[in-house]
Amino acid sequence: MQDKKILIVDYDRKSLDSMAALFVPYKLQIVKAIDGQMAYEKYKSEKPDIILLEAMLPKLHGFDLTQKINSETRGSIPIIIVTALYKGAQYKNEAIRTFGAADYFEKPFDNDKLVKSVLNLLYEEIEINEELPSSADVLKMIKEMAKES
Question: What is the CATH architecture of 5-148?
């Protein structure tokens, strides 16, 4: 997993550092940002495989940032929102359905569940990329199926 990169964003440095510490044992490359604008710039330059961010961010709100990145990547980079402010099913539903978040956690969160969600999303991405045949293989299969019918 050393080649996998996680961008962690939180305005609170203590929270940022504690979230980052959760992923050290998994040998992920950890990139940090303290506001929405910095996070967007790091997303562009660092090309993370997954993003973990606080919803309430200065300069560019976490929901807006999620929507912007999700739109640009067509959902190919999973974004997990972690928040202390927006509590309740309505916010979670909006974050996932409207803004494109892959998962949503309210602070204080269960560390194990957050780590499991991140690793599952990274693993799913790896699994999907490995399982997809090349376009040439797909065309070959279609031609073979057409001959058989």
Answer: 3-Layer(aba) Sandwich (3.40)
